[in-house]
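S1.2 Input.
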Amino acid sequence: MKQEKFKIINFIRELIIHIDNNLDNFPKKDIELKNRIRNSSYDLLELAYRANVTTDIVEKRKLLEEVIAKVKIIDFLLNICYEKQIINSKKYVKFGEKIDDILKYTLGWIKAIKENRA
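S1.3 Output.
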């Protein structure tokens, strides 16, 4: 289970780097959208680290649920970028792959917690 936690953090780090590398040509009127995406990705990293270090199972599960919610917010914001044609379909698909990896491993982590409690 330890490796899975670190994989999530690694996926989040990759997402942050991808955001920094691919969201640099934003129109001035949409700069707030860019800032929200960037800030949410750093919040996501913080939540994952907090979940990784807490020993309280209830708190860990709550933090992981917050990770899922934050990932969905980032996905929503990126969808807006795609609809406004700020990012192209190729970038949007790449972001989607990274988001899917984070969700998949977070859900696996939650499942592992449930199985250990039962």
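S1.4 Remarks. Residues 89-117 form the longest helix (29 residues).
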